[in-house]
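Need tokens for this chain, all 161 residues.
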Amino acid sequence: MEPRLDYGKALPEGLRAVNALDHYATNCGLEAPLRELIRLRASQINGCPYCIDMHTKDARTGGESEQRLYNLAIWHETPYYTERERAALALTEAVTLIATERVSDEVYAEAKRHFSDDELVKLLINISMINVWNRFAITFRDEPGSYEPQHAATKRGVVTA
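Here are the structure tokens for all 161 residues:
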């Protein structure tokens, strides 16, 4: 499939605002491995090829194990995730599928058990942010495979913006 639109060029000021929230989400203090699991799981649910490629690469270069990446779609059935990660993944699924499922009291209570109030807000910002990016990438057909992780590029001496 061909990309439809370079949305960053079409509306740079709009993308600056989206990028500002993304920057906050990335730097809010939630642990990086957890953020990548959230981003990858929401992208799997939404069927976003570009974001799945991106967040698999970012998780891998961040040290995530292949076993956990391969089993993320069936995390309920595997022993590879902590209770805190499970609570975050359950909330990610509920928020991503909010139109059909809503966020149940059980899912919220489990998240509340593992995250402080400010962490819950940070978690929701991260979940919401990846859902925003999924909608951009799917609608405008960002090309999967074109993303290269910044940490990998930096290791090779390539300067990234």
